[in-house]
Records
---
Amino acid sequence: MQGADFHYYEPSSGHGLKHNPLNALIAPRPIGWISSRDGEGRVNLAPYSFFNAFNYDPPIIGFSGIAWKDSVRNASETREFVWNLVTRELGSQMNATSAPLPHGVDEFPIAGLTAVPGRLVNVPRVGESRAAMECKVIDIVQFRNTSGDKVNGWLVLGEVVAVYIDKLLIEDGVYQTAQALPIMRAGGLNDYVQVSPENVFQIMRLAGAASKEHHGA
């Protein structure tokens, strides 16, 4: 907005605010509720707010951690992980899995969740989640800064090899995102946003924009 009074900062010199605004500016963000297994067979479940989809064919999703945390470490050891959808009724249990527990501790029983064995990966999904995707790791990228120096951040990319969707969320062959009441990170320390049917609106796609070439098969 022309003429507005902007708070300007350069990240390398600090943001000058009470809380880093990056997470709040890029929001809401889908939650990567990632289950994984380490090389010794121990299971881990943790939420990641840096998560998204990156490709249609093959389907590729990814999450990133700001440290060599259990999910990243496990994915590097076994080359598998599962994404689980976080909905409103699972919010407290998702939050419980974010506790800083010792490596090797299984968050499933701590959060009161059911570990359902995977079909194509040796990693369980959250039985209470209404959608999940089994993934095989295709790449793990360590981030670098503008000087080319490696930093404490890793992006884990996985090809989706199996998908689970509660059939009650499918109408006329279309997955109903809002019907699941998914929640997303909204920045700040404790803020989340819930997607609900009354907040959904449509903007008609441009001619050809929804073709398979642009939108996947």
Note: The longest helix spans residues 70-78.
---
Amino acid sequence: MSTLHVIDHPMIQHKLTIMRDKETPSSVFRQLLYEISLMMGYEVTRDFPLQDVEVETPLEVATLKKIAGKKVAIVPILRAGLGMVDGLRELIPVARVGFIGLYRDEVTHQPVPYYCKLPKGMEHRMCILTDPMLATGGSACDAIDLVKKTGCKDIRLMCLVAAPEGVRKVQETHPDVDIYVAAVDRELNSNCYILPGLGDAGDRIFGTI
């Protein structure tokens, strides 16, 4: 079974609470999502391998640590996942970015794919899939399926808020994919929205409410 990582740093929880407030404007919502994504990125990349390198400091030559050539792909699930990309790219500027387009059918609540563009060499990369909301888990599972078709073996799902139902579905369908979230909320409502949640993340990011 995959591991669920709940990143409950006080600053992340503080910023997330502001994001949940329905009165928070889109500009502030976007900025906070950027900041939280950057901070969550530290935990998502915590196990990156290191190698010894020789560096000449202003005072002496020292043997120090650098990341050992880890190739990374950041893949947002459109459209809300885009809001998490800039924070991660601030942390990992050399990361390549791909895109997976899925929308939710308003009647069946099932994800419908419409676009997929991924970097070359995915089989040699660690992939960070981003989506602020992990609700039913349908979109996340479909996106993971698309990434796995490229031969990618190291996939990590990074979300802001999750419902227990979505966590269970991803863990049952893809037990090799770890999940990173800032909070696990109570449940889904009859329309498959997370409670208490923060509303439609895409609408709040882009001001299309």
Note: The first strand starts at residue 4 and ends at 6.
---
Amino acid sequence: MANPQHLALLKKGAVSWIEWRNLNPNIEPDLSEANFAQANLRGAQLGRSNLFKIDLFNAKLIAANFAESNLSLANLAGAQLLETNLNQANLTGANLRNADFMGADLSGANLIGADLSAANLQQTDLGDANLIGAVMFRVNAIGANLNNANLSQANLNQAELIEAHFYAANLSKANLGEAHFTAAYFFRANLSFALLSGADLRWANLAKADLRGANLTGANLRGANLAGANLDEAHLNGTIMPDGSIVST
């Protein structure tokens, strides 16, 4: 449960909170399980805080700082997190459905098993993030940075990932069916045994990508760069290849 003193200080307003944090830099605020649903915490300084199971449903958290905080099992559904700092935050199992993370920093964050369904991740930095088993159904991550991220077994079905960057990312066994990856960057990415059926990979850079055993049935690879890619045992029935030809098996 939240520390009553910490809870009271935050509810007093930003000025009191910042003054207290400046005077007590070594204290880790404890706001676990607190209810801030629909609260306006724009610009709040909540870095290195215990926010376990906090309720921030539909909260305004624009430009707030949650760096290195524990937000595991938190409810951030529908929250506004534009340009928010969540660097290395722990969001394990968090509810992030329909949240707006446009331009946010989630680099190095732990999002194992988090639910990001229909979230806005446009221009979001998810470099080095841990997204194992995350639910990212229909997310909008156009132009997002997912370099070196771990997305193994994640569900990105029908996601919008146009021009997203996946350099050396791990997408092994991920569900990428019907996702849009036009002009995405997958150089050296691990897509082994990934489900890519019906995916739009036109003009994507898949050079040196590992596509062993991937299901590319009905995928569109027109104009894609497959130089050095490993397609051993990949399923290519009905796949449109870079030259426009259609594989028939």
Note: Helices lie at 4-12, 14-23.
